[in-house]
TrEMBL record:
The organism of origin for this protein: Rugosimonospora acidiphila
Gene3D superfamilies, sorted: NAD(P)-binding Rossmann-like Domain
Protein name: Uncharacterized protein
InterPro entries, per database record: NAD(P)-bd_dom_sf, NAD(P)-dependent_oxidoreduct
SUPFAM superfamilies membership: NAD(P)-binding Rossmann-fold domains (SSF51735)
Amino acid sequence: MNGFDEGAQLRVDGDLGEFGARLDEALRMIRPSLGRRRRDRVSGYPGDGTQRWPAVHALDVAVLFRLALESAPAGTEWQAVADEGDKVRDIAAVIGRRLGLPVESVPEETYGPFGPIFAMDQPASSAHTREALGWKPVHPSLLDDLENIQP
């Protein structure tokens, strides 16, 4: 019997996938703001920008789901995190560079209902997941993936 028959949990933190195919709130928040950033002529981040945002590529999560289905004990939890915490200032910097915009701190309210989430420090670790299940994320990081944004 595999882990999911008895309720193993896989926790996916932060952002997923290739640019254009992201599945979670991080890019849903970033995409609508790209047009606003172009219009406002700034790539912003809340606070001092040191808060961390975990991320993982969707294809790496798919591999982890397979590993968990095949070997996770019942009742276990697993973290699907490849980038354990990119600073939101660094995320804004890549977006700013790719769109030719200055990068600066903006009010949390700039991000609407996602503001409090984006302003929160959210470090996460998958060290236990990697060690116990032999999971090795191999796909592009969030910052590398954001390099695909076109002006």
